[in-house]
Amino acid sequence: MSNPSPTRILAIDDDPAMLTLFRAVLGKPCAGREPERLRMCVDTALSGAEGLELFRRAHCADRPYAIAFVDLVMPGMNGIETANRLWAVDPSLLVVRVTASEKALRMAELAVFEESDRLLSLHKPLHPVELRQVARFLDQRKRAEDALQRRTVELNERIEEMRRLQAELAQAQRLEAIGQLAAGIAHEINTPTQYIGDNTLFLGDAFRVVVRVFESVERLLACDGPAPAELLEQARAAARTADLPFLAEEIPRAVEQSLEGIGCVAEIVRAMKEFSHPGAESKVAVDLNRAVASTLTVCRNEWKYVADLTTDFDPALPPVPCLPGELNQAILNIVINAAHAIAEKVAEGDSKGAITVRTRRRGNAAEIHIEDTGTGIPQHLQPKIFDLFFTTKTVGRGTGQGLTMARSIIVEKHGGALSFHSEPGKGTAFIVLLPLEPAANQPVAGNGEHHDTCHETHCLAG
């Protein structure tokens, strides 16, 4: 590994003897590319204007000076003005003001030198050891600052990479959920598609029959004078074959059923699109009722065979600031858990259960209440349900990540609260609270209810 490049120093003083001292103590003049074995190199200038020009050229060439020794008392541009103009080019420059005059130093301290940790003072005459120690100290400080800056850039890049990976993981988890529900979604789409197809076939056959009747009537209308008996009989036979009263009743019904089926398919597709959409990186105002309804549609095949689902949405609920895709995933996990809990009871011989989903406004928060009539959670397991990989389901049915993920999304990403109360053998209710205002450092209001078996996890918004 090569050594770091030398620290570049600029010395500005109208006394040639002082510049000789700087060169003798601090190192050789800075070349276009300094040898890496040098720790420091120094360039000198006899006036503020000359020093400022050297400084500007080096800065434009991307070979900036890190330290400047500036004499306070110089003809023309004095040390105070010189230092300020150097800082205007590079605010990170470390400046050492040098003077033999106590009066000049006091004037400098009272002048427009801002209180800065990038400014030191030395009194003439300078001792070589003192000068070398100050230069080495500033050199070490500058190298430490550069290392810290590089480390900060690296950390920021890693943080951005982690955020990107986290967003990709969240999207992958949503798509994985869609994949796991794919068979059920396909069934939900197949049912209306099938009767749309059947009705379309019926309408095609009916159309051909009706066309034959129209053709018979058209032949009758084309006759001049009384219609021949043969044409009349053909028209009557076509009408009898068509069974017009039957078609008059069934055709509107077939059209109505087909439109209903198209509506069902469109609703499922819309729900899938909203659920799987990557969503925004920052919170957006969302119609919470619609978001929850879409999620319930996506997972319908999970609950419809074991439970009747009832929704009770608050129509006056205002838009809620949230991450739509993330929130959909959290609600999906909770609803599927409810369906699985009911399925366990149904497998033991119980009748079909019930899932109730309500939305309400609770103070400065929106509440989503998801309640089931499943098996409930045993008392001794309730403190563990948000633990990663903890599950009471059989192998292959649960991964132990659903509620952990839901908690992370609701609490950590939305500044909300997730609580539950459960009674073994009777069911469980999960309560989600989401802040209605995205203001930071404000706790989310609860609903005031308390339960002996209630476990809650929450944090401050932001």
Structure description:
This protein is α/β, with parallel strands linked by helices and 462 residues long. It has three domains: 7-150, Response regulator (Rossmann fold, 3-Layer(aba) Sandwich), CATH 3.40.50; 182-273; 277-458, Heat Shock Protein 90 (2-Layer Sandwich). The chain has twelve helices and 13 strands. The protein has helices at 16-26, 48-60, 79-89, 102-110, 128-180, 182-221, 229-242, 244-276, 288-298, 300-303, 324-347, 402-413; strands spanning 7-12, 40-45, 67-71, 94-99, 119-123, 284-286, 307-312, 320-322, 353-362, 365-372, 417-423, 427-435, 455-458. The strands form three sheets. It has a six-stranded mixed β-sheet, with helices on one face. A five-stranded parallel β-sheet has the order 2-1-3-4-5, sandwiched between helices. Strands 6-8 form a two-stranded antiparallel sheet. Helix 3 links the parallel strand 3 (67-71) and strand 4 (94-99). Helix 8 (244-276) crosses helix 9 (288-298). The longest helix has 53 residues, at 128-180. It is elongated, with a radius of gyration of 40 Å. The model is unreliable at 441-462 (pLDDT under 50).
